[in-house]
Amino acid sequence: MALDGLLLHTITNQLKNMVPCKIGKIQNISEEEIQIHLHNPEYGNQKLVINVHSNTNRIYITESITTTLNSPSNFVMVLRKNISQGTIESIEQIDYDRILCLTITSYNEFQDLVKHKLYIELMGKYANILLVKENRIIDALKRIPVYENSKRLIHPGAIYSLPDPGVKQDPLHPVSIDFEQSLVKQVYGFSPLLSNEFQYRINQLHEDYGSIIKDLLQSDSLYVYESDFHCIECKHLHKPYRKFPLMNGLSTLYKEDETKIRLKEQCGDVFKAVQKEKNKNIRKLPKLNKSLEESFNYQKYQEYGDLLFCYMNEIEKEKVVILPSFTDGTDVKIPIDMRYDLKENANKYYQKYHKMKRSQIVLKQQIENCKKEIDYFTQLEEQLMHCSIEDAMEIREELTQQKILKPKNIKKKKKNKPNILHLKFDNYDIYAGKNNIQNNYITHRLAHKQDLWFHVKDYHGSHVLLKSEEYNEENIRLCANLSAYFSKGKESSSVPVDYCTVSQLKKVPGSKIGFVTMKSYKTIYIDPEPDKIETIIKTYRVR
Q: What are 28's strand-pairing partners?
């Protein structure tokens, strides 16, 4: 569901606590998400995220670190030019509608104080962000020409007008409400979900309208259901919920879906390159197998040459000559290239015989390499299924080193180590890699000979390392569960996980990065528990 006006009113009340605040960086998280860095003397540095995607639009303060687009959009460039280093003087909601107005003052290039208004319209598929000065639109994230909407032109230079809210009652001071009918058309700020909740509480639970609205406006929590959410408990749903602090709840609400969108926007070339290389090798393999099968008939060309030399003086040159076989006397039809005499034809058959005999070794090696490439790109494909943007960036780096992708001219600080998962407990540490660069770092840089190393059997997956003075069933099963979680076997049961001490690992010369073999090992069978693993990661992860 989308935000409604009363939920936005509750969010706005929390945002107002930060006003006035200084604007710092303005960045694109994705094509329809903008992140504004704010500074307030009391609250310090904060990040305001404005999402105007049609299905996930909302506004919230976040503390999480998000990867931003390398190339900002034109709209973000306009914002940087006009309001960067400005001050947000006020944040107001327009008449309990899903529209916020941020009043921003800043200095222009002539050091004159200029006032702008940033309108944030969170209205489902019509969600938008507009920068307005003196009631004229400077620019909008989503421009809407007149032929798409004749009533409301959203374009630079056009006069800004608010959407028509219709005629409804003030939710704080209603005159008369019919609680047998939907409140959506009677009172500002109500969504169908909130209307059903008020009707249920008033008609079934006999609660008072004033007390419900008071609880709603004073709420600082978000109640998240399977497909719904609000800042008060939705008792009429009769379903379990998760309760978050308001801003944290808004931050995590669509985390999984948005990660996929951001991955596609920021690392789409990585996905395409992996798929392209895998398909290329899949198409190549049957052709190599066919060539190898044909090469097994190389001995017939030796026979052609032998027969031609033997009967050279007894036969006439024709397009096809028929001679008796040396082995069983059956007729052998030999094609003749009329451009050459019989001796040259015989020599060419000998050349073809030797070439095809040698080609078997080469073809077998090419087939083996092709299978390894398919296996390798399948592994990368599976790693991309459950990776973060930072992990995908490391996969891009891996592909760049192999010259599969061209390097991007991006200025960034050199990282000391890959973005590995580190879980710290009282008596032991666990490290897990989610791509080949991380796996290689864990196995060959972090690991010591006595540490335990885990890898899921028969699947591509994570290298998991256990550092502990004492190994027991609890930490071994946890590591095995992590190995299964970061693999294709995540949704399976009785997943086999091999483990051994690092001293039993051997790197294969000439193999792809992160590939190792085990001299001796043990196997444990585990039923993956995704919910448990996700909770452990959130609780014990070292940032």
A: 34
